[in-house]
Amino acid sequence: MPVRSTVESTIVQVAAEHNKSLPPLTDNLPLLESGLDSLCLAVVVARLEDGLGVDPFSAAEGVVLPVTIGDFVELYENATR
Amino acid sequence: MKTQRVERPCLRALVLRAGDAAARFIADEATRLDLSVVAGVAARPSVERLRGKTVLLALARQVDTAAALIELDGVARRIVLWPHDLPIGRMDGVIKAAEVDFAISVWPPLEPDSGDGVFTIRAAPGPEEIDPPASEWVLFTSGTAGQPKMVVHTLDSLAGHLFSDAPPAMGPIWCTFYDIRRYGGLQILLRALIGPGSLVLSCPDETPGMFLARAAAAGATHFLGTPSHWRRALMTEEAGRISPAYVRLSGEVADQMILDKLRQSYGHARIVHAFASTEAGLAFEVADGEAGFPAALVSQPGAAADLRILGHALQVRSRRNAIGYLDKRINAIPDAEGFVDTGDIVELRGDRYYFAGRRDGTVNVGGQKVHPEEVEAVINQHPAVEMSLVSARASPITGAIVVADVVCRPPGTAPSASPADSARAMQSDIRDFCRARLAAHKVPAAIRIVPRLDIAPSGKLVRMRA
Prior knowledge:
Helices cover about 50% and strands about 0% of the residues of chain A. With about 80 residues, chain A is mainly alpha-helical. Chain B has about 475 residues and is of the alpha/beta class. The interface of A and B includes residues 43, 61, 65, 66 and 67 of A.
């Protein structure tokens, strides 16, 4: 599965588990206005670490914290490249 | 319990003395509280009735709580600060344990005869005590598996270090993600009130972006929060709209990543991380931008607090220590030598100490505490589970997150699905099982099905404590 679909389906799944309703996921949607709270986001990052084998946040330097869904997906795309 | 060390003016007098109250405010999303109004009013009859009594403040809004504290310090015998996130079902127990005379859910309190019943519970009448020597402030420790502990402070232990005969003419506008009904947030409130300064407070229904935009508009320059608050804040566009002179982190371990990110984002700010707890008060502040704290701070004369490391745990002795737990059956804090044990394990690497988890294994998920044993007890109730081990995994978002290793019982009937599919189904089933029985932050974010778990010779699970 492409990284983008894995990331997006994980977001959708975690949101459903936490009873959060999500707007349609677009690249410009700010991550923290998507309806995910920080606990959801932490769960998404933990699941992706298991699923994709990477934690892009742990890179020693140069990580720009994602602001939008697009930034978030890109972070994982770059980390798995 | 120790007696009050030094006679201090009450909070209202300190607010008035601290400079131009008319120019100072406490604001949330909907309300701007002018400090001259609160601090200047003559004692209201409804408040006067609370003299010498124990008052439980269970107000919905932080701004009202601030107003009530200004009016009640020096009037009430004991003020119990009900945290907004405690289950309401616990209130009866608290009223009994703290010997509460009045529980108040609106401020200013209505007269009891006003007839609408809002001026709430009148518990067993307490002893008449006119002009208590100093009001006791009772704070709750952050959530644990059992009843949260009630910790007794006074204005002196909470803010004695801020008292000064000649306060500066005007302090900064503070902004905090913390709630003022717990120790961290209360410290900022008192700093703003006595400092003197102003304070911008968050509201539960605001996104971090909305809050930062409001703080920027109010001219806030001093920003405080946990590392998790800051990680979240830096993931908003609005993070670029504030230009802080001072950024402070406490309440969780500040890792190098968040310190570096803050430095990158706010090059001109003084960035400080601090360690404090409800029981110990402030232990230290570090401003060199590095995680951990210099070993030289331990046994350093003249520091804010005396620090010592005993059995790898950080212990703190200072005049900012709490006076004790309200429940006298819990071991006295501080100990005979005056030290408060924080329960936080530190390890020395080079000339610096780094935090390495809690002695009791408590996991801190974005400021909310989780006992692994509580989660294990739930997982182990699942009919297909043999045993489980719950631990912490580092999270870039919440500092830590709960994960579980689970050993399943041998399947009775052969499942038709492949082993991978049945593992996935089991993970999701255990997750649903936990979600129905535990608060969201306690549900394991990741579950691994493992063939076995190590058992120590003592018969206990081997816990990999950091």
